[in-house]
Amino acid sequence: MAEDSEISLVDSPDAASSAPDLTPKRLRRWFRYRLTRLGFHFLFVALFAMVGGAIRGFNLLLVLAGLLVGVMLIQWRSSRRVIHCGDVTRRTPLEIFADRRFTLRYLVQNRSRFLPMWMVKVEDEMEDLSWPSEDSIARLASAVGFIAPQSTTIATCRCLITRRGRYRFGTPVISTTFPFSLLEARQTVERPLEVMVYPALLTLRVNWQRQLPRAQRGQNVDTSRSSGGDGTFFGIREWQNGDSPRWIHWRTTARLGEPAVRQFEQNVRRRICLLVDAMSDDPMATGASAVENAISLAATMVCEMVGRGNTVCCGVSGASPRLVASQHGVASRTEILQMLADTTVVDRHQANDALQAAVEMVARRLGNRFDLVVLSPRSINNVLATDDASQQDERKSDGTYRNSLRSLLGDWKRRHKLAWVDVTSDTWNQMVVSPDAEPVSNRSGPSRSGPSRSGPSRSDADRTSPGVVNGFGATQ
């Protein structure tokens, strides 16, 4: 049995996935009813008693058949009434990062004035749009034990997505078999939703900024005093002439009997442009690779530097070169993370052309006002040698001349504003904590802005599909 209905409601998903749309939308709902295995057995016994009583003339069998049919009618009427009064709304987190567990919330509402809802199951599905495959759809499930009349209960589902990209949630389904588990009543609500999963965040070392271009006072940086209250707290030291009384740490002063002041790290506000060389030998590979490490490193550096007085721009040299500028705000940070999450890598034959187009875009829009940090899965010598050979071939074939990468990057290099980070070299280990290493205390690392890859390992038994791991739970 199935029923269709349309109800005009407002569906406004969270801002993490798309901007709320306050215009009324017509949500389609499907109601379906089917017998469970126990219901089939129950119905068989009822038909057997009815036929046997009619043939043999046994009144007790007819009475028993009537009771069984009555129970089936009560089950159908109760389930139908309850499922028509239910509703479910999905709530996603504001930010979802790969390799980081997050909680999906389902708001299950009981609109009935008198009837409570019991044993409600919530089902959902998630589809990977960036890496489509045969098993790119994961099934999610949660449950609620009791919902009072005219109230809302939250069902939660713990999920883990291991790959960045664009994902789509399907239509949530609520179902119940209460009270006798003879019939399952299901309601499907047409609420599709697309979300963006940001790249995985890494754990940076304390001195990771040493790999960036040297900060020179008055050139692309602004500095503040190391003992000022605007910096990051570093420690306690003895009093010195010229220190402000506002910096005195009175508890330590009382314990030592002499003045002690708080010391702060020097804040350096940079103007920096991160450029990701999105090159991969196998662009269709879905596992971890050097280019994914470069993208994750860029996302981690953006989370570290945006919002702390820095001006950060980020570009990618993938299938379509893009550049996003930051203006100290969370909105621009989100725009950069979305760009990194939706980056399409290119193969080795197209990598140099894409990188040159991205560098030209940066030079045209930013000039030399920003430091340039290139995050690449290959060394700079390899890139320049390949570009020089390609340029010589073009001269021999058609006699044309174009600007080489060497000349484009030379302007930043002469001003000491260029840093090339090869994620396959030792520079990676100097910036990022290895997943197998012990956690590092990091005052400036992403511990306050995101997770690390050094969390507990996951077994294959915990996976429901490559890319998504879901849990089960409900709160009231």
TrEMBL record:
Positions of region (Disordered): 1-20, 432-476
Biased amino acid composition, Low complexity: 443-458
- Give the originating organism: Stieleria varia
| Highest taxon above the source species | Bacteria
Give the matching InterPro entries. Answer: DUF58
Record protein name field: DUF58 domain-containing protein
Ranked from the top, the taxonomy reads: Bacteria, Pseudomonadati, Planctomycetota, Planctomycetia, Pirellulales
Per UniProt, the keywords (alphabetical) are:
Membrane, Transmembrane, Transmembrane helix
Residue ranges occupied by any DUF58 domain in the UniProt entry:
236-376
- Asked if the keyword Transmembrane helix belongs to this entry, the reply reads yes
Q: Name one Pfam family in it.
A: DUF58
Transmembrane portions of the chain:
35-51
Q: Has the keyword Transmembrane been applied to this entry? A: yes
